[in-house]
Amino acid sequence: MPSTKTGIGPALNQARRSLGKSLEEASRDTRIRPEYLQALEAESFRAMGEEVYVRGFLRSYSSYLGLDPEKVMAAYTRFAPAAPVEPVAPPVPAEVHEKGLRVLHARGSWKVAGVLAVVLIGVFAGLGLLSRSSPVPPAGTIPPNLEAATATPPPTYVTVTLSTKKDVRGVVVSVDGAPGFSGTLKPDKRQSLQGTSLIHVWIPEGGTVDVVVNGRDLGTPGDGSAPFEASFGPQDFRGAPSANGP
Fold first, then answer.
1. Residue finishing a domain among 45, 79, 113
2. What's the CA gap between 191 and 161, in Å, rounded?
3. Is 3 part of a structural domain of the chain?
4. Is 63 helix (H, G, I), strand (E, B) or coil?
5. Residue 206: domain span
6. How far is CA 121 from CA 64, 155, 176, 217, in A?
7. Which CATH number characterizes residue 61's domain?
8. Strand 178-185 and strand 101-104: pairing?
9. What is the pLDDT of residues 198-230, one digit of tens each?
10. Separation in Å, CA 191 to CA 16, 77, 171, 172
């Protein structure tokens, strides 16, 4: 890891302050833990562990702050050691919630995602208000309070299992904003990860890794022309477990 001051840290700090964002707010937006963001701004790269995570979080954070990630990474590389064996830089871009799957697009917009999140929250809140103010149900129907009392509590965890039929290099997974797995996924060893809020998966080549989310087998999403990126939460794909699930 580089020990020489690169000037990247002050640039990140100034960009964050110019946006009026605290470390906690930036952490919530990027889903990167505050201590990691603080380490980036202090250029305490050694404290972040493996080089692959330094590069991945640095690229994601600089993109979020509106800086040019390519220029930031070029500045970092000038002071960094030789490129790692499996150099990957997984961004954590904006989320688009579609049919229960939050797909992360490599060129997503943080601002658009923020607006979409606000709209979704407003819709759900509106539905909740309508439910509470609805008229008394006719005879023979189940009262809403009884349905709520008998409803299954929502799950509080998310599980993702990855498997492959060939070696896939450069796979990176973060769990609840922290490093989960990075390296080569091998055919003889499945990788199962569990989190409480969000698991982000970055696969350098789509269509090569079988992905099982909360017991639902999604097959090998993506295609070989581009990386596959996705983020999964506790509510995604809940239902009848797949036969290939964990």
1. 79
2. 5
3. no
4. helix
5. 90-246
6. 22, 19, 21, 28
7. 1.10.260.40
8. unpaired
9. 898 889 888 999 999 999 999 999 888 788 888
10. 35, 30, 11, 11
